[in-house]
Amino acid sequence: MKRIALISLVALVMAGACKKKDDENPQPDPMTKNLTLDISGLENLGSHYAYEGWIIVDGAPVSTGVFMVDDNGKMSKSTFSISETVLDNASTFVLTIEPSPDSDPSPSSVHILAGDFSGSGASLMVDHGAALGNDFVSVAGTFILATPTTSTMDDELSGVWFLDLSSGSPAVGLMNLPALPDGWVYEGWAVTNGVPVTSGRFSVADMADYSAPYSGTDAAGPPFPGEDFVSNAPMGVNFPTNLSGGKAVISIEPEPDNSPNPFLLKPLVGDVPANAMDHKTYMMNNNAAGFPTGTASR
């Protein structure tokens, strides 16, 4: 009887040791499979937003996990364990921007990258129909410096307007801007003394933008995106200013927005000459080659 009890005790000890060893070195679940993301060009979204991946399976989104990006563009996580059956049946990968924390189990409308799976991988681009739907490589732009909302002529270098005066009359300065999907909006910017200041949000290039918080009150601005920086200066900036040596920028912003600064999608960037002249048409450079890209591998 004593011998039987001793054998039982040894068996229990050995079983416990094996269990502990297995707990310390868990074996991968044969029913899961890794999804690996390799994405460049993303930026830090701050503490209130995060990136979230989704796979589309039979027309429905399935979350693959949330990750952040640091100031160097490094992802906090790039490999995600997914049900093998679900991942193998996925047709598309979509990357969204989500509030953090997020109580909504569905994807937001802010889709930044997407790609269809072909075999084991998907190439992720902004021009996929499940993202922004355009590569923006044909977008072109011009701008002028002027302050049409003031009657004085000594502040003309303190306003930026995205129009074209080369014909002698104001004309559309932002060409081939596609309509943006839900979750996105265009925004103009002037960078003065290294500080970006918004010139307003807009959806089309041949109408005024949605607001004019810094304009004067002597006259209405032209029916194009732009702003006079002459009143209500934000912290860190003095108005009127001189935009010479700065930049004019068109960005594509998520809505709701994660930051008061320009988002990483900047299809048009123009240098303001150090010896800039008012009412002169300046060209902008297409910056779409710098948009984020990546792959999803399963």
Question: Could you give a quick summary of the protein structure above?
Answer:
With 298 residues, this protein is mainly beta. It contains two helices and 20 strands.
What does this entry look like structurally?
With 298 residues, this protein is mainly beta. The protein folds into two domains: 32-133, no CATH class; 140-290, no CATH class. The chain contains two helices and 20 strands. The longest helix has 23 residues, at 2-24. The model is unreliable at 1-23 (pLDDT under 50).
What fraction strand? 35-45%
Spatial ordering of strands, largest sheet: 3-2-5-6-7-20-1-4
Secondary-structure-based class equals mainly beta
Number of strands: 20
Distance between the termini: 57 Å
Low-confidence stretches: 1-23
Reading the helices and strands in chain order gives HEEEEHEEEEEEEEEEEEEEEE
Largest sheet: 8 strands, antiparallel
- The tally of structural domains comes to 2
Mean pLDDT: 91
| SS element count, helices | 2
Give structural attributes.
298 residues; mainly beta; 2 domains; five-stranded antiparallel beta sheet; 20 strands; disordered N terminus
Topology readout:
Elements: H1 2-24, E1 32-40, E2 49-57, E3 60-67, E4 79-83, H2 84-88, E5 90-99, E6 111-118, E7 121-124, E8 140-145, E9 159-161, E10 163-164, E11 171-172, E12 174-175, E13 184-192, E14 195-202, E15 226-228, E16 247-254, E17 265-271, E18 282-283, E19 285-286, E20 293-297
Antiparallel strand pairs: 1-4, 1-20, 2-3, 2-5, 5-6, 6-7, 7-20, 8-9, 8-12, 8-18, 9-15, 10-11, 13-14, 13-16, 16-17, 17-19
